[in-house]
UniProtKB/TrEMBL annotation:
UniProt-recorded name of the protein: Arrestin-like N-terminal domain-containing protein
Location of the Arrestin C-terminal-like domain: 174-305
Domain Arrestin-like N-terminal: 12-155
PANTHER family in UniProt: ARRESTIN DOMAIN CONTAINING PROTEIN, FI21816P1
Length: 305
């Protein structure tokens, strides 16, 4: 009858509606194996939980043809054995039908958050995979089941000064000077970033507008990916050229799943490096040539206030 694994499918059911877990938590649920062939003969069935980074590089061959190379670093892996032969049995046989097993796997306390989508590079991803052992050869069954994992980043415990105001500033060649104050250094999704801008414009150059945005960066195995979280404009500044302008600004951090600020380096067997960081970006647009400039203000994004 053969192994039968290629014609079997797997369904994962978790103890919660969304497969999102914090570092240190126990992932629990059941996995269902549907055997569609007459029989499935194996030496072992186990569940694997894997954490891996993925990144890409470019290379050129002798004919100057460029190609993209994809790399993976498995920094975390654990195994949960479901079934082994008993006594003198050499293998297990599962006939056509459905089989299910409960499972519980604990996540480590210190792991990087899920970053980016699994199909995009670079990324940090976690997934569950049912596997069989047949004659000493491991073989996966069914599709990988991705889960979302976040470390706990408590602003009050891990960033003691997160309530401290942050000052920033920059200027351009036309002597437009922008100074500002951010109300604090740390935020969580769903919070409003607020502050004040002070503009010194002695030559009364027309300031067209000031755009602001919340931006994130993944740096995984030295490859970066940038993404926007939210965008807006500073109200009350468009088309002004006064010598001194003072305005308040605000922009929301959406209340959605966002990787927290985190820096990781390490792993079980293979070393991985991954960092997630955030910045508030001001883009000052003024009349004239080479007069536009920007200000980048870093802040910490946590998972708990």
């Amino acid at each position: 009858m053969g192994c039968g694994a290629s014609n079997s499918n797997v369904i994962f059911n978790f103890d919660r509606a969304k497969p999102m877990f914090a570092a240190g938590e126990i992932i629990s649920g059941t996995v269902q194996l549907n055997v569609k062939d007459d029989s499935l003969k194996v030496n072992e069935i186990d569940l694997q939980l894997i954490g891996a980074t993925g990144y890409s590089t470019r290379s050129t061959d002798g004919n100057q043809h460029s190609r993209t190379n994809y790399h993976y670093v498995r920094f975390f892996a654990t195994q949960y054995v479901f079934a082994l032969p008993n006594g003198g049995e050499r293998e297990l046989t599962y006939s056509n039908g459905q089989y299910s097993w409960p499972f519980q796997i604990q996540l480590p306390d210190q792991i990087p958050p899920t970053m980016n989508l699994p199909r995009l590079y670079p990324h940090v991803r976690y997934y569950l995979q049912l596997a069989i052992d047949k004659g000493g050869h491991k073989r996966k069954i069914g599709e990988e089941k991705y889960i979302t994992v976040f470390p706990r980043v408590s602003l009050s415990q891990q960033v003691p000064n997160y309530m401290t105001a942050t000052m920033f500033g920059n200027h351009n060649r036309k002597d437009i000077t922008v100074k500002g104050t951010l109300n604090k250094m740390g935020y969580v999704p769903g919070e409003m970033i607020q502050g004040t801008l002070e503009i010194e414009n002695p030559n009364q150059i027309l300031i067209k507008q000031i755009d602001l945005s919340v931006n994130g960066t993944y740096n995984i195995q030295m490859q970066e990916a940038h993404f926007k979280v939210n965008t807006g404009t500073v109200q009350g500044i468009a088309q002004r050229k006064g010598e001194r302008i003072v305005e308040k600004f605000e922009i929301m951090i959406p209340d959605k799943t966002l990787s927290p600020s985190y820096q990781f380096r390490g792993g079980q067997n293979n070393s991985a490096a991954a960092t997630c960081s955030y910045m508030l970006k001001f883009e000052i647009k003024a009349a004239g040539v080479f007069t536009n400039f920007e200000i980048l203000v870093p802040f910490i994004l946590g998972t708990q206030p």
